[in-house]
Write a structure and sequence with these properties.
This protein is an alpha/beta fold and 274 residues long. The chain contains nine helices and ten strands.
């Protein structure tokens, strides 16, 4: 299993880590910590040293009830960071966490080689931007929008509905000319899902593997872990590592996390024992 993204090819034969870099003032966990280009670049370099195989840079929070960010503001947040990292010839691909086609295009032009889209390229023009590039793409499931997704999410069968959505979006990308080895899928933990929905998905992750695409899982520090442990967001390290380990043992290929070093070490044990 591998993911082709621009000049990079990610070897996903063993589980890898995507390090989170939010250059936002309001992300649910690390908002406000890396809003200056210098601090963002320094943190990115630390994530790489800690073992991140991908850097995921986001300039707009998608936490529940987050306020949408104007296009120009999002560009001003992310593009200087991408350019500064590319200028340093970092050895890992940069992922841009956005649903806006204009941000995707600008980020790819600046050197990003993966688009991580919570709306799975459903915005007008998004599919065309990725299809016209050599970038990899992550297609995520979300019920509703960040402003409404946790109001009252409902499913008849969360696993089957998420699986059907991801299959349909994957097939749409294939039809648009995006090669299969440029596509990965994300079930979207916490995006329009209750505690029960999240747990049901986590227990059945392996059933998404027959879609044939690499699977990305993002459970790091999320509210479902707080609901299980009773801990606030600053005290969810152990729960986040446990969630990454369980996900990897069920076949997840890429784990999107805040705590890179701890997760990388835990996944080495998973690989050795699996």
């Amino acid at each position: 299993m591998h993911l082709r993204c621009g000049a990079f090819t990610l070897d996903l034969s063993t589980p890898q880590v995507m390090g989170i870099l939010n250059v936002t003032p309001d992300s649910f966990s690390d908002g406000g910590q890396y809003t200056h280009t210098g601090s963002a670049v320094a943190h990115a370099l630390q994530l790489i040293e800690d073992g991140a195989a991908v850097l995921d840079i986001g300039g707009e929070s998608t936490r529940p009830n987050a306020t949408p960010v104007p296009l120009e503001q999002e560009l001003q947040r992310v593009i200087p960071v991408i350019e500064a990292l590319v200028a340093r010839n970092i050895p890992v691909p940069i992922s841009i966490d956005t649903y806006k086609p204009a941000v995707m295009r600008a980020a790819i032009d600046a050197g990003a080689s993966i688009v991580n889209d919570v709306r799975a390229l459903q915005e007008d023009g998004a599919l065309e931007v990725v299809a016209a590039s050599q970038a990899g793409v992550c297609l995520m499931h979300m019920q509703g929008t960040p402003q409404t997704m946790q109001d009252d999410p409902q499913y008849e069968n969360v696993l089957l509905e998420v699986k059907d959505f991801l299959r349909a979006r994957r097939d749409t990308c294939l039809a648009a000319g995006i090669a299969a080895d440029r596509i990965m899928l994300d079930p979207g933990f916490g995006f329009g899902k209750t505690r029960a929905h999240n747990i049901a998905l986590a227990r059945s992750l392996a059933e998404l593997l027959d879609l044939g695409s690499p699977l990305l899982v993002g459970l790091s520090r999320k509210s479902v872990l707080g609901q299980v442990t009773g801990n606030d967001v600053a005290a969810r390290l152990y729960a986040s590592v446990a969630a990454a380990v369980v996900s990897a043992m069920q076949g997840a290929h890429l784990l999107r996390v805040h705590d890179v070093k701890a997760t990388v070490e835990a996944l080495k044990v998973v690989t050795a024992l699996k």
